[in-house]
Amino acid sequence: MSSSLINSAMSGLSAAQTALSTVSNNISNYNVAGYTRQTTVLGQSNSTMTQGGWVGNGVYVSGIQREYDAFITNQLNAAQNQSSGLTTRYEQMSKIDDMLSGTTNNISTTMQDFFKSLQTLTSNAEDPAARQTLLGKADGLVNQFKVVDQYLRDQDKQVNTAVTASVQQINNYATQIASLNEQITRLTGMGGGASPNDLLDQRDQLVSDLNKIVGVDVTVQDGNTFNVTMGNGYNLVQGSKASQLAAVPSNADPARTTIAFVDKIAGNIEIPEKLVTNGSLGGLFAFRSQDLDQARNNLGQLALAFGASFNKQHEAGFDANGAPGKEFFTLGSAAAMSNTRNVGTASLTANITDSSAVKASDYQMAYDGTNWKVTRLSDNAIVNATPTTDGSGNLTALSFDGLKVDITGAAANKDTFTIKPVANVIISMDVAVHDESEIAMASDATAGESDNRNGKALLALQSSKTIGGSKSFNDAYAAFISEVGNKTNTLKSSSTTQTNVATQLTKQQQAISGVNLDEEYGNLQRFQQYYMANAQVLQTASALFDALLQIR
After folding, report:
1. Most exposed of 280, 363, 403, 545 (fewest Cβ within 10 Å)?
2. Among candidates 323, 306, 331, 329, which has minimal Cα distance to 441?
3. Has residue 7 got a pLDDT over 90?
4. What backbone phi and psi angles, to 5 degrees, belong to 303?
5. pLDDT-based confidence at 286, cuts 50/70/90?
6. What's the pLDDT score for residue 47?
7. Using CA atoms, how far apart are residues 181 and 508, in angstroms rounded to an integer?
């Protein structure tokens, strides 16, 4: 009997020690990110048959259990993935909004100053000082366009840098997850099926961090191995092997950095950005293709419409020397970029034929082996292009939305080109008139310096519907600012909502997996009492054993 008591008490002491160690470990890791609360699972030991019947043999530790809910964890990862993407996109968009929302030294006020000086000159057309002031205001307006354009270009470069950094993080996380897969499999085998909880926590945290950058799907193989995929099936982790991504120049636009899957045989395989929709990387891609490009194109369209209409009217007049007016502003031209994967010999050249009809959008021209398809990228609409052919009926050009795209050479099936009508308008923008006498204020070559009739026509451009036939310069700029502000507010609201969802799911997850110090303190006292009770049993068994020895 004393022997049975001792065995039961010893098993209880051992179980109590394990439970206390588990509680202590929970408390110690209270502030450790990704730690999952552990629980000691106890089981009843097999009983022994005696003359009096089956007698229990105490308790045993069946395992150390992680308090983990896979369903809630998956929900949380999905919410954090979306939240990360929206937050990244909002943060980038808010930079544009902050820059454009300034009340001073913006394009609107600078343009108003330009037309005010033009109005002053119109009232006194022969005044050299007023003419010189107009040239100074023109320089200021061009400079303001360039400041905003350069800011947007710098943001484009910052996205490139962020994409490169994201790829490095993804590769690092994938490598660590693959290494943990190998360690977990090996140690689980050594532990007779018991998995190392600390490594499971580390792997879960890495998957969570990876998921915040790029949306991933996780499948479990052989009970404890994670296989991780992204972007519609690209394997990042397969067992103990990790694949790598590379930050590479985009095939469509080499000035932009995108991501590619590194294949040992095929090399770098560019991953379509449309497949990366969530996570901070998806947020960067969405911001660049939807928000940043639209802002740059809106600004370029405004500069083109203003500069081209002013040039046209200025060239219709005569300067102080009676010479025909010349171009007042120099403007950048449209660009056509060939995809680096094209195999045909076709070459495209884009020219602006009607600045008032030019849209604030880039275009994709794709050849299907027979025909060209033109897609306006701002709304993904198919554009009906007017063809131009030579005497033999061969296609030589396509005209659409104020553009004419000349085509030479032979395109191959699936060749694509990107047409950028206004992307380079501002970078080459400048004041072409440097001598005040060259300002064409007159409408007649012989009218003299005091003739201001063409000056009045130039001044009337301020309120003319020159942009898309529906907006004046100020209206277009106000609409541009409003669009940026509305989009920023929408993204802020969406980001806040999704963050709140992630926060609620985090609370649910922590209610299961997180460490509650009050609960652990209660467990500490409970298992301490459990230990002391078993110690008392052991002491009693020892006393009984000593009594038996004394009888003998």
Report:
1. 545
2. 323
3. no
4. -65, -40
5. very high
6. 79
7. 27
CA 453 from centroid of its chain's CA atoms = 52
Contacts of 199 (CB under 8 A, 6+ apart): 180, 183, 184, 187
**Residues 328, 316: contact at Cβ < 8 Å?**
no
The domains of the chain are located at 2-67+514-551, 73-310+473-511
Q: Within a 10 A sphere around the Cβ of 372, how many other Cβ atoms?
A: 19
Confidence of residue 552 (pLDDT cuts 50, 70, 90): low
DSSP conformational letter for 360: S
Q: What crossing angle do the helices spanning 453-460 and 293-315 adopt, rounded to 10°?
A: 160
The two three-digit tokens of residue 336, written as one number: 């056509």
Phi, psi at 503, each rounded to 5°: -65, -45
Residue type at 241 in one-letter notation: K
Q: Which residue has the tokens 């301490």?
A: 528
Q: What is the dihedral of CA 82, 86, 88, 93, to 10 degrees?
A: 170
**Furthest-apart CA pair in the chain: how many Å?**
144
CA-CA-CA-CA torsion sign (342, 346, 347, 351) = negative
Q: How far apart are the first and last CA of the chain?
A: 16
Strand 225-230 to strand 234-238: parallel, antiparallel, or no bridges (unpaired)?
antiparallel
* Token pair recorded at residue 327: 């171009």
Annotate 200-256 with DSSP letters as a single string. HHHHHHHHHHHHHHS-EEEEEETTTEEEEEETTTEEEEETTEE--EEEEE-SS-TTS
Q: What are the tens digits of pLDDT across the range 345-359? A: 999 999 999 998 999
Provide the H-helix boundaries in 316-445.
none
CA atoms within 13 A on the CB side of 420: 17
Phi, psi of 500 (to 5 degrees): -65, -40
Residue 410 vs residues 93, 252, 396: alpha-carbon distances, Å: 41, 19, 11
